[in-house]
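The step that takes the researchers longest sounds almost clerical: writing a folded protein down as plain text. Below is the pair of lines this work produces for a single protein:

——
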Amino acid sequence: MAVLESIRKKGGIIVSVVIGIALLAFIIGDFVPKSNRNNYNIAEINGKTLVWQDYENKITELTNMYKQNTGQSSLDERTLDMVRGQAWEMMVREEIMKKEYEQTGLTVSPEELFDMIQGPNPNPRIRQYFVNQQTGEFDRSLLINFLKNKGNNPNDAQQWNLLEKSLLEERYVQKFGGLVSKGMYVPVFMGENENTEINKKVDFDYVVKQYTTIPDSAVKVTTADLKKYYEKNKKQWEQETSRDIEYVAFPIVPSQEDRTAADEWMAKIKPEFAQTENASQFVNMNSKVPFDGRFLTRDQLPVQAAELFDEEVGTVVGPYQEGEALKLVKTIKFENRPDSVKVRQIILLPKQQTQQGYNNAVALADSIKAAVEKGADFSALATKYSADPGVADTKGDIGWIREAEMQVGSMSETLFGMKKGEVSKMESQQGIFVVQVTERGKENKKVQIATLQHNIIPSTRTEQTIYSQASKFAVENRTETQFDASTGTQNITKRVASYIGENDGMIPGLSSGRQIVRWAYNAKKSEVSDVFTLEEAYVVAVLKNVRKKGIAPFEQVSGEIELAVRKEKKAEQIATSFSEAVKKAQSFSDLAVSLQLPVESASGIAFSAFSVPNAGVEPQLIAAAASEKEGGISQPIEGINGVYLITVKQIIEPEEGALEQAKERLASTYDNRSISESVQALRKAAEIKDMRSKFY
């Protein structure tokens, strides 16, 4: 079980290929008319059709893995949307790379996989999962024991199968990456360019006139100018399909009536809580949070209940509010307890998964407990009976355990209440344990408390009232004009969500938004929605903008174009005045005086630099500085923020030996990026038709 838990915690979501669903797709195919079968297609990748069941199966697989890794029983919409995205990326990548592996003849033999797992030098993940807790080193015996017994536990078998498939994919990627990297070569000229860009540096002075110094009214921009710029720079306006919406949200929050009701509930139950003799049972029956039996120091108590540390057993504090919850806290008992104990254990598992098998294991545990209490050798009994794979090395000793690190439950309460040398039998879902405390850490006064929590939540009546407000808004504002006018005059905050993709699941400001996205892709521009019911709010939206894949139409980007054209015309004006000034200047300082501009300095600027001091991000300025000669005055340089003139004061050439270092650095960079960029290139070249929005 410890090995399985290690895989769950460290493995993350492991890539897996599940083929059982293919049978389901085959069966469904017999009952679905041929004309309707395309309705089940979710993607086409390089001409191959993938069906909805394949994708749904991948989502289910990753969802189950996520639940196992986190211990959650269900996923919220945000997490589920993340899982769907991962499933899609995995499915697309698998399809694209499978074809590449076949075309290049890449294979991974069973012998290679065996070597990755049980060879002289196992895969790092295998070495990580099967670690001896005492030595901290890889323990091959743990691996062998796990492989021998994994068939007895379906969860172990499933986890192992996923790990094997992940290791298999890892080896394919390594081989593919090796092929790609072997094709990489850094020519001399590229090394020289790299060396120059990084190691050649210049010191220069510059003057700049900002575009903002020229008022917009001084620049005339015509429609013809805008269309000319648009035609010349069409590629700049290439876009994907997206939508813009605006929305108003009516939060579903508790009313004052709900808060009063919560106060009254707590006031009514407080006397019962104070009088009950079984506080843990009372909490489990009445609280929104189960009983936590751990003992706490003064510092570990909630601030609002810290005074309980000096009170008597049975004292109650509260109710006090913490977030959207009311809490009552009661002292149960005080004890001197250690923060940690040293423990050894014997784990017993039923030999048959029957009641009789379980009874036999319990009886054996009772016998072992009695034998240890009479002086029997615990280590010998552990070696003989324990199901722990590492017992041969540990003799059942699991070392020091901290109470703060243990899960809530009776096992924690029992262990830290045991005396040195005391033996106890415990039962859990993992098996039957015979445990003995061999050492106790330094003891401190601690208190066990019972916390009764009552959440303040909106009542049905409150939700109906809020829904009525949202519904009234939606009915009275059926057009975009009405929507805008109402949000401008009423005390309602309008929010914006731009560039929403067809398969997006989230909308900024909302916990989930898939239903709104689907509406946006079926609605017409300027259409106002009905009321959407989300977990935390009722929402009404208006579709503001519709973008189609391809080159954005002129009307859609005319505002952006006007800014660019206006900036271009200002640059022309400034450059003309600069050119005239350069002709008359005797020196750079004379030039600055004639232009009435301050001289700024920059030192040690390389072509690969990101920005220039006091100028900001200006790639054109950096490029010009790197190519100018010493002593001259440059031509006007049109930058992002203004137009520049520069004079280079000093050029610092690369040192000897820098060329070889630059070539090695460039080769290493290409090698590191080879796999990711080759996969991205293959994906970009692939023909991918995404039809997920039909289903989700």
Notes: Residues 1-37 have pLDDT under 50 and may be disordered. The CA atoms of residues 248 and 492 lie 7 Å apart. The longest strand covers residues 325-338.
